[in-house]
Amino acid sequence: MEHPICLIENLETGDLVVNPEAERILTEINQPVVVVAIVGKYRTGKSYLMNKLAGKSNGFALGSTIQSKTKGIWMWCLPHPKKPEYTLVLLDTEGLGDVEKQSLAQKTEIYYQRNVDESIRICNALIQDLNGPLETGIKEEKYSKPGGHRLFQQELSRVIEAYNGCLGKGIKAADVLQEFLQEKEKTGAMILQTDQSLTEHEKKIAEQKAKVEAEEREKLIIEEKNQRLQETIELEKKSREEQLRLLHQKYEQEKQKMKEENEWMIQERQKEMEQMMKEGMSHKSDMLQEEIQNLQRQNEATNQESTSDAFDAALPGVLGTLVKKLLSDLYPSKKKPNVQ
C-alpha cells in the first residue's frame, strides 16, 4: 500500500463502519502479519511515530493543531522492514479527548433532546397528579348527573389553572397540555350530551362555548410556543458564543504549547545533527534535517491557521440545527413561523 486507508470509519451518528476496500486488502494477505496499533490522546504524535515505524516521512496524516486529523481507525499494510516473509499492519487510531470530535451541532441536538424528554416527563407527571380528582369523578360517574357538565368544566378549569401556575415545566409544557385537553374535549362532549338538566338549545350553546374556548386555548398555546422559541434561540445563542470563546482560548493555548515543544525539539535535533556531521555520519544527519524541516513546517502552518472563521462559521450551523429541531417539535404538522 502506498498510503494508509480508513479501516473503520467513525460516523457522526456514533456508528462504526468497516471500509470494504480495507477488508478486501486484509483478506488478500497470505503472509503472517505483525500488527502494531497505537492509542492515546489527540495531538500527541501517534501518527508521527507510526510514520517513523513505517520508515516514511509521510503517510498517516499529521495534525498541527488541537483538532485531530485521524478519524476512526486507519490501516497501512507494508512489508516488514526486517522480516520479508511477514507483512506489517499499522493501525492508527483517532485521538482521545479531541475538543472538536463531536460537532457543536451534534452536542446541541443531544442537549436539546434531553431537555425535551425531561420536559415531557415532568409535564406528564404534573398532569397526572392534577388530573387525579377529575379522573376519580369520571369513574364514579359524578358528572353523569344533572348539572354534571358544569361541574366537569369547573374541575377541568381548575386543572388548567393549576398546571399553568407551575414553573419549570420546560419546552413541551404547551404540547402536553394541548394533548390532555384534546382528550378531555371528547369526554366533555359525551358528558354534555347526557346532562339532563340542559335543554337542546342550552347544549348547543355549551358546545359553541366549548369550541370558542378551545380555539382561544389553541391561540394562547401557539403564542406561548412562539415566545418560547425566541427565548430558547437567544439562550442557546449566548451559550454557543461562550463555548466558542472557550474553544478559541483552548486553541490558542494548545497552539502556543505545540510551538514551544516543536522549537525545543528543533534545537535538540540541530545539536544532534551538528554532532553527527562532526563524526562524519552524514546519512543520519540528513534524516535529522528532514525531521527538523517537518517541525518547522508544522510551526509555519500553525502560525497561518486561525480558528475565527471555522468557529464563527460553526455558530450559524449550530443555531440552524437547533431552530429546525425546535420548529419540528413545536409545530409538527403546521406551517412553521418565520424566525428572525
Features:
340 residues, alpha+beta, 5-stranded mixed β-sheet, 64% helix, 9% strand, GTPase activity, G_GB1_RHD3_dom
List the SSEs and their pairings.
Blueprint: E1 5-10, E2 16-18, H1 20-27, E3 33-38, H2 46-54, E4 73-79, E5 87-93, H3 104-130, H4 132-139, H5 148-165, H6 173-194, H7 200-278, H8 282-304, H9 308-330
Parallel strand pairs: 3-5
Antiparallel strand pairs: 1-2, 1-4, 4-5
InterPro entries: G_GB1_RHD3_dom, Guanylate-bd/ATL_C, Guanylate-bd_C_sf, P-loop_NTPase
Coiled coil: 198-305
Family: Belongs to the TRAFAC class dynamin-like GTPase superfamily. GB1/RHD3 GTPase family.
Structural overview:
- The chain is elongated, with a radius of gyration of 33 Å.
- The protein contains nine helices and five strands, in the order ββαβαββααααααα.
- Residues 64-70 have low confidence and may be disordered.
- The chain has helices spanning 20-27, 46-54, 104-130, 132-139, 148-165, 173-194, 200-278, 282-304, 308-330, and strands at residues 5-10, 16-18, 33-38, 73-79, 87-93.
- It has 340 residues and is an alpha+beta fold.
- A five-stranded mixed β-sheet has the order 2-1-4-5-3.
- Helix content is 64%, strand content 9%.
